[in-house]
Batch of 4 targets.
Target 1
Amino acid sequence: MTTMLVTGGTGTLGRLVAARLRADGHEVRVLSRHAPPYAVDLRTGGAALDAAVEGVETVVHCASTPSGGDEKAAARLVGAARRAGVRHLAHISIVGVDRVPYRYYRSKLAAERLIEESGLGWTILRATQFHDLVLGVLQALAKAPVLLLPAGLSDQPVEVTEVADRLAALATEPPAGRVPDLGGPEVRTLESLARAYLTATDRRRALVNVPLWGRTYRAFHEGGHLTGDEHALGRGTFEDYLHRRARAAGRA
């Protein structure tokens, strides 16, 4: 079996990918800013990054920072991977990074370009938003007595375990370039997702749809972040996710 490095290996996606690769018998190194022995900030790199990549055949790049730095992190990682002779760099990205002019998405797209032009063997999988991200947004919005939602927006949340399964499988295969996007099973209005959340948590809130403006809002409104039916490959719905969380809380 091969030696693999999972960046962001303690995060929501990375820890699942690392677990699946280990279960398949691979030697897995986990790189994270605060997780020894490979505690590395990819934005600064250095000798610690070179040591983490040394002897690695495949890198699975799950690390991401919405506050900024993905492009710089990708550049550092690509440089270290070249020096170490890495054969395969598998990367997770987001559906719509080339269609939605959101600052974080632009950084993700720039990271994709660096990987594509790296000279390394590479695979890039784009996925829609994970269920836990949608939940976090709704939890924050529901703190107010009135739940305000951007008018006319939809989402296509996907189960993170399904993305982890797909990314781990791709990492064990030869480099494949851009592979088909992975979207959740349903395109849902934000209002329907909010109502599902309120029902599951027994909360009552008035829902108000608020029209917004700007290029980014227009791109989301037009569905630039959605895969459409062709790539709605996920199976777990938002309600499935909420019910599973409720059951887990009941056992705690």
Target 2
Amino acid sequence: MGNFTKWLGAGLGFTFGGPIGAAIGFAIGSFVDGFSEDDLKQERIDYERQRNSGKSRGGNNTQSGDFEMSLLVLASIVIKSDGKIDEKELDFVRNQFVNMYGKQRANSAFKLFNGIVKKDISARQVCIQIRQHMPHASRLQLIHFLFGIAKADGFVTESEVEEIRKIAGYLYINDKDYISIKAMFYDESDNAYKILEISKSVTDAEVKKAYRKMVKKYHPDKLQDLGEEHLKGANEKFQRIQEAYDRIKKERGM
């Protein structure tokens, strides 16, 4: 158990406290008898003491593990939103974590997830904690990941869409950004325009301007601080921007 919490301590910053920290503590307690949230807080104290004494690496307020835990908690909320836990969605979460973190770290994360998903969690409180510490580009990436989970079983239910919309609002992600990311997971005639956050009535010059704006907003370099493991999702999102632009250019003969 010590190695497990040490793994957490080495990768977490702001998510050690607040509602996310409480969910992590509950999850660990579900598979470790006698473990409490206070034990988790003590691990955080020990980690900070080590870091301040120069025995551990420094880090900014939002670390790779913070993004990881935020994903787990928000994913648990979305998966339960339709009143059932779908095995395909669970497999998607597991596979995404294996792809990002490797099998060993992913197994530890998913072990936590199986505990977190059993706990009733306030999406609003969790999102308040996230937005206080996580930059906008990282919050956009969270929403992209959540739509991927919801679509894993072949379709997105209205309850899942509504839950992700609420989460986006709590994370201070505006409607244009939300609609753009949502459109990346649907195959509709005007999706390319939605992805670039424009209407079909715009001029060719406005299309090019919108594309340059979206490239700047979604460039994977904005997630460099979260580590190499999170860049794959960023690259997928960036690719959808490029595909949308190419489709519009082809339709218009640009």
Target 3
Amino acid sequence: MMVDESLLMQRMAGRKLSGLIAATYTPMKACGDLNLDVVPAMVEKLLLDGVSGLYVCGSTGEGMSLTTRERQLVASAFVNATAGRVPVIVQVGHNSLREAQELAKHAQQIGASAISATCPSYFKVASVQSLTLCMQELAAAAPETPFYYYHIPVLTGSSIDMVEFLTHADEAIPTLVGLKYTDTMLFEFQRCLELSNRKFDVVWGCDEMLLGATATGARAAIGSTYNLAAKIYRKMTLALASGQLETARQWQSKSIEMICTIGRYPFHPAMKAILAMQGLDVGPCRLPLESLSQSQVESLRESLDAIGFFEWSGDTSKPSDA
């Protein structure tokens, strides 16, 4: 396929993401089927909360538990509902690179702002060369769409040095613009940010460490808990930008407390349960993720109430001491 270089350059010119990008959940019915009628309401809530982009069909969106056709339907629903108001990045990684190519082609056809992909994970990718070849083959299917590699070693089992990957893949993948960096190694994240005179757009992926990443130089972050509490993260980054470091620390502390509380339960099912508590019913997760029992939902609500979540995740001006 011929690359329209002028169109590619136009799309990549304003390529750097900024702010909070919500890793969206995939709404489902009780039977496990997609419930895409909910997507417009999800998008409006996120935009009202101040997110600046959406990341679709990633780990949070259970992309790996969906069929290729389902993933295409989900991507289309979010692109249509967003209507160009914020960037939509579609995660197209798959154990089958052929399926990943189909997802990448579709994302380009529907006008996604960018694509992103994990590497194949059943057969482990063990070298920079192998990772580059895999991502080169995948990204070539969407030659006019910016590409972000999704680095999440805890799930893929691939812990390849990202500085080496960016250096090696730079010329091999013309559409490569950066990474979704979901690891806790701030020093490697900083090296990636500073590589080649800050050429690459490296987006942070660990919500509970956003303050440290922002201080290190992160301009954008993709995360699950921005679905629930984008407002506290925005207050944290605004406090940091205005020199109110102690206030910023307090907001990050609230985030950590929230995440640790949710982490006592199966995480993504608990997140979906909390969205329902906030008035947005996105249904259950799909197996192998098990839904919470009613007693677990009640216990989760009590635990969140005990830490003041429902107060300080709203429109408060200062972190609550609750």
Target 4
Amino acid sequence: MLRLRAVCPPESSKAALDVLQEHVGATHVVLFPGAAIQPAGDVIEADVAREAADEILAVLCSLGIDHTGGITLDVIDTVMSDAADLAERDAPGEAADAVVWEELVSRTGEESRLNATYLAFLIIACLLAAVGVITDSPITIVGAMVVGPEFGPLAAIAVGLVRGRWDLVRRASLALGLGFVVAIAITAGGTWLGWTAGLFDASAIVGDHQVDFVYEVGPWSLIVAVLAGAAGMLSMTSAKSAALVGVFISVTTVPAAGYIAVAAILGEWQKVLDSAGQLTINLLGIVVAASAVLMVRRSRRFANDAVRPLSPG
């Protein structure tokens, strides 16, 4: 279940309480009159079944509470209550299938920001990928896949496209584009230092190697990217985050970026182009699949809303 807290002006409190008291998916409704200081108003709390959260949030936002006050959601790990069990039983749908759209927008929006932490993870991942390419180590390549933070911006682009949030699309695209450019440039610099120090030579990527799959583009590259994008978005929208690890280690976005840097320094330009193609196919495949999953989820939500209309007051 989720803990919902709303700070709202007194004139909106009755309508908000009516929504929470009338919805079968909400319970443990509490009112603290005049408890909020900034912004001033009443504080309302309730425990909400995950499958009912999106519907309730939509009505509370229609009251303008997100503008005149504020609404927050927190995950509750343990609830011991017959009333909570009843709310989860009577709420329409299943918790694992529920999408809390505002939560998704907030989460992907945060993960799509171009900041020092995001760049640090992407740079480290690309450097690991370069080491894996040079040492012909698939294990190191897998490690680079896990460290890479690129799925956050990719998911944000998908959410922005489906929800019409073009600000989110622009911000995530900037994080991806500039992030990969910076990471590849720094990785190329590190590769050049290793090459001039005599740590390796062109034979590192000439001939057959175990990690050649990184730059070998084919139909399976797109198939894997599409499956990974679908699985990743299903994981994010159903709160089953454990599946994201499988997504990270199934696509060759970061390894392809690392290979671009190594191949460029060693003058293997065909492999640079092949790696760039691999990177592009993976990025596009993930975004398309993630967007398709969201569109299916959104259509199901609209169908459910048509059957169960909920209005404030």
